[in-house]
Write a structure and sequence with these properties.
It contains twelve helices and eight strands. The chain is α/β, with parallel strands linked by helices. The chain folds into two domains: about 150 residues, Rossmann fold (3-Layer(aba) Sandwich); about 90 residues, Orthogonal Bundle (ProC C-terminal domain-like fold), CATH 1.10.3730. Helix 8 runs antiparallel to helix 12.
Length: about 260
């Protein structure tokens, strides 16, 4: 049986998300870089990016599928039919892991009957093994394939399984929110700089605060509202800041951002 240490993994498409996943697997120390392959439309650029990681660059998708055990579909969703349909014969004996938005198990089943697939939507912190990976509960992978793929995903961070109908919104919250939190970090750092703190120090302080607060919530399971209340003394400084954020519509702004993406 294949393991995370022995399986050969190939990326069809090697953009930001695929490279983040590759970096995370290499950083885990469990997946040898030499077991990672990639193909992409611009081979010269791909070759340089793969060589820098110790990966193998291949020129065609068919060549890649024939060389690996797990195929990661990381191309734009609108290209999937065009790229994968001609590969149905060689994909039949591979585990297919999709990171393409809008493509769930049912849709892959219609395009590639008999091919085992699992659909996920990871976020960019997978590159440092701190990601959240929204994973469709339904899969057509066999037992061994599902165990292997879920084992690989577990190296990248926290895997959250959801029903098929919730995969899109789970991916939106996990996948898009790093941009929102980066904006929060930048804004709080700007405030610190405004009051005299050097920029680099401000980013360090704010990013560590965000990381520490998140780890505290995960470790304790505390309700975020209770964590907020614990910092807000009656008549104190924090509650005045909280009141300003409420007046500015901070909560509704985040909810509206998710609503805008989900349409």
């Amino acid at each position: 049986m294949l393991s995370v240490e022995t399986a050969k993994i190939g990326f069809i498409g090697f953009g930001n998300m695929a490279s983040a996943m590759a970096d995370g697997w290499i950083a885990s120390g469990r997946v040898p870089a030499g077991n990672l392959y990639a193909c992409a439309s611009r081979f010269d650029t791909l070759q340089a990016r793969c060589e820098a990681r110790g990966m193998r660059a291949l020129e065609t998708a068919r060549e890649l599928v024939e060389a690996v055990d797990v195929v990661v579909v990381a191309i734009k969703p609108y290209l999937i039919e065009e790229v994968l349909s001609p590969l149905a014969d060689v994909l039949a004996n591979r585990a297919v892991l999709s990171v393409a938005a809008g493509w769930n198990c049912e849709r892959y089943g219609a395009l590639l009957p008999g091919v085992g697939t699992l659909s996920t939507i990871p976020n960019t912190p997978v590159s440092i093994n701190e990601g959240v990976i929204a994973c469709e509960r339904t899969t057509t992978l066999d037992e061994d394939g599902a165990a292997l793929v879920r084992g690989l995903l577990g190296l990248l961070g926290s895997v959250v399984e959801v029903e098929s109908r919730l995969l899109s919104v789970a991916g939106t919250v996990g996948g898009c929110s790093p941009a929102f939190i980066a904006m929060v970090i930048e804004a709080l750092a700007d405030a610190a700089v405004k009051h005299g703190i050097p920029r680099a120090t401000a980013y360090t302080m704010v990013s560590q605060m965000v990381a520490g607060t998140a780890k505290l919530q995960l470790a304790t399971g505390a309700h975020p509202g209770a964590m907020k209340d614990a910092v807000c003394s009656p008549g104190g400084t924090t509650i005045r800041g909280v009141a300003e954020l409420e007046a500015a519509g901070m909560r509704s702004a985040f909810i509206r951002a998710i609503d805008a993406i989900e349409g």
